[in-house]
Structures are given as C-alpha cells and as structure tokens.
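Exam revision sheet. Question 4 asks you to relate a sequence to its structure. Input first:
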Amino acid sequence: MRLRELDTLLLDILSQDHPEITAATKLDNGHSRLRVDFASGARITVMVREVTGPGVPAHSAYAIPESAL
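Answer key, structure tokens:
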C-alpha cells in the first residue's frame, strides 16, 4: 500500500470524526501491523505489505522502515 493510499483509507474510515492522527505505533508480532490513534479517540490496526514514496529506503515485503513512521 502506498502512503497516499493509506492516508486516503484512514480519512475515509473516519471522515465523520476528527481524522487527525495522534500516534502511529508499529506492532511487531511477526506481522507488519500499525496501530493508528486519532484525535477523536478512534483506533485502527492495519497490516502493511509495502511502503513506497519519496525518501523511503528499499525494504523487504511486510517490513516497515523506521524512517517511514
């Protein structure tokens, strides 16, 4: 998933609330999951297969580069 696609997905999910992201936490349980907290108090967890975009270093599938957080 591209960072822009993730942003769009998150905003679509919470478009009726305050979509401001207050935290993005990498959960490492053998999967590349992110827990995203919002100003409204909502929280979602997404699994990331790939991160792409300017400044994102090469990485293997299902690995989230620390610089992307």
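Marking note for examiners. The longest strand covers residues 21-28.
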